[in-house]
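Deliverable D4.2, example record:
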Amino acid sequence: GLLPRVQIIPLGKGMAGLAAEQRQPVQICNLQHHDGSLAQPAARQTGMEGSIAVPMLTAGRLHGVLGVAKPIPYTYSEPETALLLEVAAVMGKYLGG
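Output generated by the structure prediction step:
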């Protein structure tokens, strides 16, 4: 089933919170075997492994964080990360009004 919707993620907590705080992409090759605090329990419950969180920024303003995950261990390449940043910026533009 789907995880409960999270209303607010504190800055600096988990992948999304860290991506928002640092305004930089954050990735984990395998959520299921990561031993740090970035992999939150709810993220592990998805069963996903390769994961990346990218900030939705327009003109330096944060509008949210875009998360993408794969069901296999995976490290996102620089071109993939750059593309996700572009997509997140477009989303941020529309979400930010």
